[in-house]
Design brief:
The chain is an alpha/beta fold. Helices cover about 15% and strands about 30% of the residues.
Length: about 350
């Protein structure tokens, strides 16, 4: 890696204080940086590391003090975003495989676009379509009649079931499953659970990223839909016929039960759970471990289980934490009331 300070400054529209020709070796967090590295400082909690960091170059906000003469400063309005921009531009992932591996099994009816890369033991089944410049890593299986768009990246051991539709610029990480059967069963007259065939499909729109070990079930009828720009963390379960609106994001271990509709620009923290057949409107945020059992009809922040407006939830949580004190206060008040009653009764007897 050879990037000069001036090249970085030009990319992020920064102002350089120091040697613009200095070559940056790497990028690092402020505490872990080594000589030759570029780092960033964007919140006051990390100011204490400025004196001790071994970095050579640092992003800072405009007019930030520059006490160290051995550091090269690059002023930018938002150092954290400039750092991210740098990573995206210079450190985007490059594949380590090329071409179509001889061990891959590509059905003669499959349509493979230009510049597609296919790794070892990949299976692409009958009537599949793979768009231009898509990369498919080792041991991934794509079942019949599935369509995958252009510029997609599928890591190792991904399983895409039949009839799924995946858009452009989609990233799917290792061991994720798209299109497995929804959890559909019914009891027969003997009280036995009988499987109900899941005959729908999954639609994943453009610019979606799925983490590792994500499960997205196919619809019982119709489609399970993951909207454009959605980002899903590892170990998330999306059940049959769920619809997720554009640009929503889910942290690890979120679970969404069947036929629930999630709006656009929603954010769910880790381990949030949603019941089935409910609706969440656009712009909802649910804090970690929140339990959504009923439809959320107003945008805003929610917390707790059952999930409620975060201000209400935090007040209730504060009261719960004070239950021991409340109990003591109640006992003290009961003792005072009892003492007053005894005193009143005594006065009545004296009269």
């Amino acid at each position: 890696m050879k990037i000069t300070v001036q090249e970085v400054a030009d990319l992020v529209n920064g102002k350089v204080y120091g040697d613009p020709g200095f070559e940056i070796k790497n990028i690092s967090k402020i505490r872990e940086a080594k000589e030759g590295d570029l780092t960033f400082l964007y919140i006051s909690a990390y100011e204490k590391f400025l004196d001790s960091t071994k970095a050579s170059v640092i992003f800072v906000k405009p007019d930030h003090p520059k006490p160290r003469k051995d550091l090269i400063y690059i002023e930018v309005p938002e150092p954290d975003k400039a750092f991210q921009q740098l990573i995206i531009h210079f450190f985007s992932y490059l594949p380590t495989i090329t071409g179509i591996d001889s061990t891959a099994s590509v059905h003669p009816t499959a349509k493979i676009g230009e510049n597609v890369i296919i790794g070892k033991n990949v299976v692409i089944s009958e009537d599949c379509s793979i768009g231009d410049s898509t990369i498919i890593y080792h041991n991934t299986i794509i079942a019949e009649s599935t369509t995958i768009g252009s510029n997609c990246l599928l890591y190792a051991n991904v399983s895409i079931y039949h009839d799924c539709k995946i858009g452009n610029n989609v990233i799917i990480h290792a061991n994720t499953v798209v299109g497995s059967d929804g959890f559909g069963y019914m009891y027969n007259d003997k009280g036995e659970l009988i499987k109900v065939p899941q005959i729908g499909d999954v639609i994943i729109e453009d610019d979606v990223e799925l983490g590792s070990n994500v499960s997205i079930d196919r619809a019982a009828l119709g489609s399970t839909i993951i909207g454009k720009g959605v980002k899903i963390d590892n170990l998330v379960q999306i059940a049959h016929n769920v619809e997720v609106g554009e640009n929503s994001s889910f942290s690890g271990q979120v679970g969404i039960a069947g036929s629930t509709i999630v709006g656009k620009n929603c954010v769910f923290g880790g381990q949030v759970g949603l019941s089935g057949h409910i609706t969440v409107v656009d712009g909802v945020m649910v804090g970690a471990q929140g339990g959504v059992s009923k439809s959320l009809t107003k945008p805003g922040k929610y917390f707790g289980s059952p999930a409620k407006n975060y201000r209400v939830a935090f007040k209730e949580e504060a009261h719960i934490r004070n239950l021991e004190n409340y109990s003591k206060q109640i006992k003290e008040l009961e003792a005072k009331v009892k003492k007053l009653e005894e005193s009143l009764n005594k006065n009545k007897e004296d009269i």
